[in-house]
Specification:
Elements: E1 5-10, H1 12-20, E2 25-28, E3 39-44, E4 50-64, H2 65-72, H3 80-86, E5 92-109, H4 110-115, E6 124-126, H5 129-137
Parallel strand pairs: 1-3
Antiparallel strand pairs: 1-6, 2-5, 3-4, 4-5
C-alpha cells in the first residue's frame, strides 16, 4: 500500500449516499492529509455500527465557503442550511472528492473491529498498513 488510508465514521444517511453515488464529496472542517488514490474506509455509526465499504480519493479541495458550496451543492447530501451550520465559524472548508466508492461483500462489525484493536474514531483517523490489511482481508 503506497497510499495513505483513513478510517472515517459516518452517519448511515451519509454512508448510504456515498455508496449510492448521490454523494460525490465528503466535507471536512479540518483538512485531511489525503491525495489522489488514497483509500478511505467507511465505518457506519449506530445503529449499524460496522465497517461497510470504502472509497478512493480523487482530490481534496480547499475553498472559501461560497466557492465550496458552488462546487458541492448538488452532490454533498446536505441542504445549504446544513452546510452553513456544519461550517459555522469557519471561512475555509474542505471537500474530499470521491473517485469511486464500493460496499464490502461482508461488513465488519464493531465487536470484530474491537477484537482487532481497531476502534472507530469519532471523526477519522489514519490507519497503518497492517490495520488496512487486516480490515480488507475480512472482505
Amino acid at each position: 500500500m503506497k497510499n495513505k488510508a483513513l478510517l472515517l465514521s459516518l452517519k448511515p444517511r451519509f454512508a448510504d449516499a456515498i455508496f449510492s453515488g448521490e454523494k460525490r464529496f465528503e466535507l471536512r472542517r479540518v483538512k485531511p492529509k489525503l491525495t489522489l488514490g488514497d483509500l478511505v474506509l467507511v465505518y457506519v455509526t449506530a445503529p449499524r455500527s460496522q465497517l461497510e465499504g470504502a472509497f478512493e480519493v480523487s482530490e481534496v479541495f480547499e475553498l472559501e465557503l461560497k466557492a465550496l458550496w458552488s462546487l458541492v451543492s448538488k452532490s454533498c447530501a446536505l441542504s445549504k442550511a446544513e452546510f452553513l451550520q456544519y461550517y459555522e465559524g469557519k471561512e475555509i472548508g474542505y471537500a474530499v472528492g470521491i473517485k469511486r466508492a464500493w460496499q464490502m461483500e461482508s461488513s465488519v462489525g464493531l465487536d470484530q473491529l474491537r477484537a482487532e484493536q481497531i476502534l472507530p474514531p469519532q471523526g477519522y483517523r489514519y490507519l497503518s498498513r497492517q490495520e488496512v490489511s487486516c480490515l480488507l482481508s475480512n472482505e
